[in-house]
Amino acid sequence: MSFNNQENGPSPNKRPRFLVRNLLPHLFDDIQRGAGTTNLKNYYRQIDYESQFNRKFKMMGTTGTFIIEKLPENPEELLRKIIQDCMDQTVEESKNQSINPDRLGALISSQLLDNDIWIPIRKLEKDTIDNILTRFQLVSQSKIEKGSIHGHPFTIKIQTLGVSSLPTNQSIRGRAPQDNATDNFKLKDELFIRIANPNNLCLFYALEITRKYVVKELGDRRKFNKYMQYNHRQMKDVFALLKAAEIPNDLPEYDAVEYVPIVVNFWNNHYKDTGYKFKVFVFASINEKPIFKYGNENFNVPISILHSNNHFDGIRNVGGMFGLNHKYCFTCEKKYRKSKEHDLRCKSLCRLCGRVGSEYPCMATANYFKKCDECGKKYLNDQ
Fold first, then answer.
1. pTM passes above 0.70
2. In 17-156, where does DSSP find H-type helix?
3. Other residues' Cβ atoms within 10 Å of the Cβ of residue 44
């Protein structure tokens, strides 16, 4: 199955010409002639492939690694075929899970690309493949400086989402603020970040402002509180996020199930050089389990937001929602007061020092070992 056939796709004379010469520079003297009638599969090799399906959120992800071994006469068609095959295979695997995918996103990476080519999750259209190749064109014009990807492995990650297959009660929508939006929770500044958006974008206000708070992007608490007084700065930052992630800013409401993955994928790509790996948790009540979460399992920056009465607010301290001096583990999704009360099966618990968090268990530092004679805890580094 293809989403760009000659009946419904753009006509051949209108198809954009992609500057693959720039992505595969200095190699066109070695082009294999006569490739127009040759099977393009003879020019590349797939060296790895894996798939992962999230049944709860109707999301299929595939990752394929390829290497171009020789160039045909029409290299842009070779790239088109590789990407299209990845898309078709992901869609087919999703349908094998009884899910009809209606959203698709892509990430193409290589050590020779200065930046990954990232396509956010969008409605699946017949010109999706052309949109991806257009990104190749933009990259080829400016960003590839380390040589040709010819002969070097590159990875294509495709992600499909079946929004139409989700049950209606799975929707987590946000819209313009209402007077009773979060009265049930009696918001306290030390626990929550109150979002007072003048539009329908409370989901993105909560996400972006909470991210700034968690990573301390604005500095200390005093500077953050000052930032919260400037609505125009918040709006500017939110609209910048929407533009960068290619999210429309004029919808009547936004569903977290659909748009949180787009934001998280954008963050993880945009901030990857900082080492941040984001995962979002959406809570709806004083309940230990989030109603929705999205992100990689190796996350190190949890972002928590609260959904109540079709409105989103940020959460500063999830543990505080459950009582005084309570903490919260995002790995096993449970509250606790002391590390020794924590679930011993938790992957984020260091069994030597007893501490819990995304940076645990402790990584050993060479030639470092210390044991506390009083409590018996053992430490593998000086942190």
1. no
2. 20-23, 75-96, 128-142
3. 18
pLDDT bracket for residue 145 (50, 70, 90)? very low
By three-state DSSP, how is residue 364 classified? coil
Band (26; pLDDT cuts 50, 70, 90): very low
Q: Which residues contact 94 (CB under 8 A, 6 or more apart)?
A: 53, 60, 100, 101, 160, 162
Whether the upstream peptide bond of residue 302 has omega within 30° of 0, thus cis, is: no
Exposed, middle or buried by CB within 10 Å (0-12, 13-18, 19+), for 361?
middle
**Which residue in 288, 198, 323 sits closest to 249, CA to CA?**
198
Beta bridge partners of 379: 370
Radius of gyration (C-alpha) of the chain in whole angstroms: 24
The Cα 97–Cα 79 span in angstroms is 28
271 falls in which pLDDT band (50, 70, 90)? very high
